[in-house]
Automatic annotation (TrEMBL):
Organism: Streptococcus dentapri
The protein, known as: UPF0154 protein ACFOSE_09225
Similarity-based family: Belongs to the UPF0154 family.
Keyword annotations: Cell membrane, Membrane, Transmembrane, Transmembrane helix
Annotated compartments: Cell membrane; Membrane
InterPro entries: UPF0154
Membrane among keywords: yes
Membrane topology (UniProt): Single-pass membrane protein
Pfam families, sorted: UPF0154 (PF03672)
Length: 79
């Protein structure tokens, strides 16, 4: 009788750990993406060059700031 109770507690503890781990990992990942977007000014410069535009630094920084602002707004909207 005690064996089934121990088994049940182990299963519940394992399930709770998995659920908590997924929640913490998801929260950490969204925080990391919000702080450090995957699109960098160098990547924007390369994209503009590949589209045939001659990028200047002001245009690149403006585009980068807009992308960061949009990603933060999207993150805040989800909350």
């Amino acid at each position: 009788m005690v064996l089934w109770l121990a088994t049940l507690l182990i299963v519940f503890a394992l399930f709770g750990g998995v659920v908590l781990g997924i929640f913490i990992a998801r929260r950490q990942f969204t925080k990391e993406i919000a702080e450090y977007p995957r699109l960098t000014p160098d990547a924007i410069r390369e994209m503009m060059s590949s589209m045939g535009q001659k990028p200047n630094e002001a245009k690149i920084q403006q585009t980068y700031r807009n992308i960061v602002k949009q990603s933060k707004a999207a993150a805040n909207k989800k909350k």
